[in-house]
Amino acid sequence: MTTDTPDRILRLNTVLDRTGLSRATLYRKVQAGTFPKQIRIAVRCAGWRESAVNDWMRNPMFYEAKD
Asked: Which of 3, 40, 48, 60 is most exposed by smallest CB count within 10 Å?
C-alpha cells in the first residue's frame, strides 16, 4: 500500500529551523546551487518543497540542485 501525501510548501522560518542555517547562508547556498531553489506561490510569497529540503538534509555536503 502506498500513501500519496502531497508535498508541503515550507516557509522561510520553518526551513531555517529545520536546517539550522542562517538566512544569509541559506540564500548563498541557493545561489551556488547547493540548496533547493524556492518556488513562487504568490506575488510576494515563496517557499520550498518539503521533499527537496528533506533531500538536502539527507546529504547536505554533496547536494546539487536539479533544474
From this structure: 3
Give CA–CA dist 43/21, Å, rounded.
Answer: 25
Asked whether residue 43 is domain-assigned, the answer is yes
Look up the domain containing 26 and give its range.
9-58
Cβ neighbours of 44 (radius 10 Å): 6
Q: Taking the C-alpha atoms of 12, 58, 8 and 24 in order, what is their torsion angle to the nearest 10 degrees?
A: 10
Summarised one tens digit per residue, pLDDT across range 15-54 is: 999 999 999 999 999 999 999 999 999 999 999 999 999 9
What are the grid coordinates assigned to 52, written together? 527537496
